[in-house]
Amino acid sequence: MTNFPIQSATACRLKWGWSTVFLSKPSTASCHRVNQDKLNLDNISNFHNLPRKIADRQAMLQGQWPGGGCEYCKRIEDAGGFSDRQLHLTDHFNNLTPAELFDNPNAVEVVPTVLEIYFNNTCNLKCLYCGPWFSSKWESEIAKFGEARPGKQWKHEHNPDYDQMVAKLWTWMETNYKSLRAFHILGGEPFMQTELDDCIDFFDQHPNPLMSFVIITNLTISDAMLDRYIAKFQKLVGQKKIARLQISASLDCWGPQQEYVRSGLNLAQWKRNFEKLLQLRWVNLHINHALSGLTIKTLPDLLDHMNEWSKVRPIFSSFMTVQDPAFMNPSIFGPNVFTDDFAIINSKMPDYSEHHKKFKEHMFGIGKEIEAAKPNIPLILDLKAYLETLDARRNTDYKLLFPWLKDIFDQYET
Question: How far is CA 93 from CA 17, 83, 90, 256, in A?
Answer without folding.
Answer: 10, 14, 6, 35
